[in-house]
């Protein structure tokens, strides 16, 4: 699919068919995340695939009670590994958030290119998911998404600010 | 350009031709960032275009002394606006980092689709750039990149971990 078509047609999908995702399709989607850039090429990420129904159901209350998460055949949980050698700056250890967001953006866009739906979830119970999925102390959840063939029509995107509001020349104002 | 070709051929480019970026091309690249998803559709971002030579030169020491930054006709400085109504969780106000990273990833990928080069810079003097570009108290720099037509050949990408190392089933381990 053309690059601009992918980004123009990506939507948050909240209803999924039970149809499985073929392994070669899943591999291409995960590989898009794998080759993403990261600060100093640290690749501080891990993607946990949750396919077992009981485990998906346990994720629902840990992700705001959004039941459609468990409808999809796969839930992908993106974890960021704390950076030990961060070079300071106001981000500190949080710069792994930027790296994992880049890789997860690649993953969600690749899913769209494959006709799959995702819904980027950034509000969740980090400690609850860490317990459920045995995520170690030095790693944290950055985002999760259901991954599967979407059901229903693509909604209109949410309204966006205009370019004049988000772009400036030479200074912030 | 095909989506997968964009992500497979994106590289950090560190040498630029002085050729200007046509305004319609720049507009498409910025629009790719504009339509990016963000938590609760907050769009907590602003992109400052730095084209004036004196200002670009002043950015160099604030971004690790990397002189190639000022070679490009444009430097894009991505700012994140602090989230006042964050819903808690370990990210706190830092969740704007995730949103800005998504939009900036769209921007750098769109640049590749247009034949432009970028180099995502995540290590910089946040307060120094804030002073230089009159960025207000409640906003911070998340990343910057030179933007222009690259000079020279595309290098090989840095080595990446294999899928087996970054993907797991049902739990982190």
Task: Considering the chains and any ligands shown, give keywords for the structure.
homodimer; about 170 residues; alpha+beta; NADH Oxidase; 3-stranded antiparallel sheet; about 15% strand
Structure description:
2 copies of one chain form a homodimer. Chain A has one domain: NADH Oxidase. Helices cover 32% and strands 15% of the residues of chain A. The first copy, chain A, has helices spanning 3-9, 23-34, 53-59, 95-113, 126-132, 163-166, and strands at residues 45-50, 74-81, 139-147, 167-169. In chain A, strands 1-2-3 form a 3-stranded antiparallel β-sheet. In chain A, helix 1 packs across helix 4 (95-113) and helix 2 packs antiparallel against helix 4 (95-113). Chain A is globular and about 55 Å long. Chain A starts with a helix and ends with a strand. The interface between A and B is large, with 77 and 76 residues.
For the largest sheet of chain A, list the strands in their spatial order: 1-2-3
Biggest sheet details of chain A: 3 strands, antiparallel
CATH topology heading of chain A:
NADH Oxidase
How far apart are the termini of chain A? 37 Å
Q: Which CATH architecture of chain A is right?
A: 3-Layer(aba) Sandwich
How many structural units, i.e. domains of chain A? 1
Residue windows where pLDDT falls under 50 for at least 5 positions of chain A: none
Range of helix content of chain A? 25-40%
| Most residues in contact: chain pair | A-B, 77 and 76 residues
- Supply Rg of chain A: 17 Å
């Amino acid at each position: 699919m053309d690059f601009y078509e992918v980004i123009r047609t990506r939507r948050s999908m909240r209803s999924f068919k039970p149809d499985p995702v073929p392994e070669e399709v899943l591999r291409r989607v995960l590989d898009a995340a794998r080759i993403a850039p990261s600060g100093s090429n640290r690749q501080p990420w891990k993607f946990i695939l949750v396919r077992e129904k009981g485990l998906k159901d346990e994720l629902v209350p840990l992700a705001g009670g959004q039941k459609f998460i468990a409808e999809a055949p796969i839930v992908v949980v993106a974890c960021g590994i704390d950076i030990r050698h961060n070079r300071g700056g106001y981000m500190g250890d949080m710069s792994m958030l930027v790296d994992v967001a880049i890789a997860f953006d690649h993953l969600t866009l690749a899913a769209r290119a494959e006709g799959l739906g995702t819904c980027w979830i950034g509000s969740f119970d980090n400690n609850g998911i860490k317990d459920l999925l045995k995520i170690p102390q030095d790693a944290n959840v950055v985002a999760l998404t259901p991954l599967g063939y979407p059901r229903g029509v693509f909604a209109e995107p949410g309204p966006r600010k205009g370019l004049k509001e988000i772009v400036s020349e030479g200074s912030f104002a």
